[in-house]
Each structure stands twice: as structure tokens, then as C-alpha cells.
Design a protein that fits this description.
Strand order of the largest sheet: 1-2-3-4
Helix content: 25-40%
Radius of gyration: 26 Å
Shape: elongated
Number of domains: 2
Structural class: alpha+beta
Strand content: 5-15%
Distance between the termini: 53 Å
Order of helices and strands: HHHHEEEE
Largest sheet: 4 strands, mixed
Length: about 150
């Protein structure tokens, strides 16, 4: 999948300010002002921002198996970001006597009235809640405990 968000000044010999110096750089608090800009300082700032953007976009592309474009479409990027977070989080778990109204395949539902765990299964033709555990009457062991 394509990821058009690319890191800047990411090479081994990148002209970036040392992290310790950058941490103590007064300009970090106020931003760049009129006058001379030192390229190692600006490169460090751009690298940090582009590194996070590129990594986030790559994670989106990898999780969703979709291209992530640097085209200014913020709504699409946010949609992809949210869907990637949801996909990475895994199944939702619902507890109650009735199945949830808007489940997704793989979601779990614990029927607390019947003590039954279900998983929403997609067989390619339909969705159905399938029992994930079998509840049987407990076996009474000696001493009356189970």
C-alpha cells in the first residue's frame, strides 16, 4: 500500500541539531521568528513532525491495506486513522441479555441472563451469533463444591 507521508532528514548523516541541544533550545517555546534560521534546528523540528506523520500513515496503510495520500483531504485521513485504531483494538465485547444492535464480525456478546458467550461469525454469506462456550450444569464434587 502506498504511503505518501515521508520522513524528512531521516538519514544517518542528517543535518539535525543534537537532541540534548534541541531539548534546551529556547526557540522551541516561541517558534521561529524573523531573522536567521539555523538549518540543524529547523531540520530537527521538521524531522520530528514528519517522522510521526510518516509512521502514523504507514501504520494506517499496513492495518487497513489502503493507500494513504498526502493530498490535504483531512476528512479521509481522519476516517482512515479512526478505522485503523478500531481495527487494531480488536473485538468489542458487549454484556447484556440481548445482542448488540450494530456489531461487527468477531465481536463478543456475553448473555448475562443465560451465562452464554457468543461470537459474531461471518461465513461469507451471512452473520450469525455462534456459541463460543458451552455451559452445562456444574459437576458436583465430593464435599458439595464445584
Amino acid at each position: 500500500m502506498a504511503n505518501e507521508f515521508l520522513p524528512f532528514a531521516n538519514g544517518a548523516a542528517a543535518n539535525v541539531q543534537d537532541l540534548t541541544e534541541y531539548t534546551n533550545e529556547p526557540i522551541r517555546d516561541v517558534g521561529f521568528t524573523k531573522g536567521l534560521l539555523l538549518s540543524p534546528t529547523t531540520n530537527r523540528a521538521w524531522r520530528q513532525a514528519s517522522f510521526v506523520a510518516a509512521g502514523t500513515a504507514q501504520a494506517i496503510a499496513d492495518i487497513l491495506l489502503e493507500d494513504v495520500f498526502d493530498n490535504g483531504d483531512m476528512a479521509r485521513f481522519v476516517d482512515q486513522f479512526i478505522r485503523a485504531l478500531e481495527a487494531a483494538a480488536g473485538a468489542a465485547v458487549f454484556i447484556g441479555p440481548n445482542p448488540p444492535l450494530s456489531p461487527a464480525p468477531g465481536d463478543l456478546w456475553w448473555d448475562d441472563d443465560e451465562a452464554q458467550l457468543f461470537v459474531l461469525y461471518d461465513d461469507g454469506n451471512s452473520l450469525q451469533w455462534v456459541i463460543a462456550n458451552h455451559t452445562a450444569a456444574p459437576t458436583i464434587l465430593d464435599g458439595g463444591t464445584y
